[in-house]
Amino acid sequence: MSEVRRTDAVLLLVALVWGSSYLSAQTATAALPVLLVLFARYALSAVACLGVVAVRRRGSRRWTRDELRAGVPLGVTQAAVLVVETYGVAHTSAANAGLIISLTIVLTPLLDRGGRRGTLPAPFFAATGVCVLAVGLLMSGNGFHAPRLGDLLMLVAALIRAGHVVLVGRCTAGRAIRPLQLTTVQTLVGTALFLPAAVLDLPTLVHADPATWAQLVYLALFCSVFAFLAQTWAVQRTSASRASLLLGTEPIWAVAVGVALGGEHLTPLTGLGAALMLAGTYWGQSVERAHRSAPERRLPSTHALDKESACPTAHTTPTTT
């Protein structure tokens, strides 16, 4: 139980850090272009990771073949999450961004079919319906109107993040992959992806004020390096679905930081949406947890093959969770 609680505590801390990241990203993108912010975040993260790898090398290989093969596709999916998420938070409130992204909680079990038998029970889909209603209320603001661009982008980010969480579990399960080396590959991939789009704006980055640099450093070292390492470490010790469920406290921290530090306000409709989102996600958590812990029926197993095909670059030795 101590190992379970330690893993859960790490995931909850990641949720707190990510919950605070929306206000930081919103502040940084108000001063700099989105792609420049993402390049700086990845570049600073890559430098920090490379420094730690160099210090901790101790005669062993810096990267194994599995780490490189898993890190490249995971770096691409992580970059996709962050680019859609950062554009989204630039066009909506930090509280809304954190609440809508929590749809990842109900999307991940729908995508993560590697650790269970059969289909999810009907109450889980009812909880999903509550979350969908909550998203509609969050998008309404002071009254029903066309959805804001930022809210729609956060919906897309939630779907991509759910796929990324599942892919992390499937690409690392049963393989000797070190979180630090995997995270370093991801940060290098992200830096390479965003460099061409940011190169013309680099002089703007150099002359950014100290407050903006503080936001960038926080996003890089805490919301990227620490969070990526901790997420990978924890997902290797639990299921992708459980990781997503524990990260479900993220919207609580996003709302708290947005209201306390960002001066944001919840209208009656968005307040109701926030309450329904939290209720729906935690209802979904309890249903999924009960379904996952229930005794499994003996059925032909195909999930090992599904797990290998989800990360085609990994070696072909069957793995189990």
Q: Could you explain the architecture of this structure?
A:
The model is unreliable at 298-310 and 312-321 (pLDDT under 50). This protein is mainly alpha-helical. The longest helix is centred in the first third of the chain and has 30 residues, at 2-31. The chain has helices at residues 2-31, 34-55, 65-89, 94-100, 104-111, 122-140, 149-172, 179-198, 202-206, 210-235, 240-246, 250-260, 268-293, 303-310. The chain starts with a helix and ends in an 11-residue tail after the last helix. Helix 5 crosses helix 7.
Write the layout of secondary structure elements.
Blueprint: H1 2-31, H2 34-55, H3 65-89, H4 94-100, H5 104-111, H6 122-140, H7 149-172, H8 179-198, H9 202-206, H10 210-235, H11 240-246, H12 250-260, H13 268-293, H14 303-310
Please report which band the strand proportion falls in: under 5%, 5-15%, 15-25%, 25-35%, 35-45% or over 45%. under 5%
Between the first and last Cα atoms, what is the distance in angstroms? 18 Å
C-alpha Rg (nearest Å): 20 Å
Shape: globular
Would you count the extended β strands for me? Answer: 0
- Helical percent range? over 70%
Order of helices and strands: HHHHHHHHHHHHHH
Determine the number of helices (DSSP H or I, runs of at least 4 residues). Answer: 14
In short:
The chain is an all-alpha fold.
Features:
321 residues; mainly alpha; 14 helices; 0% strand; disordered C terminus
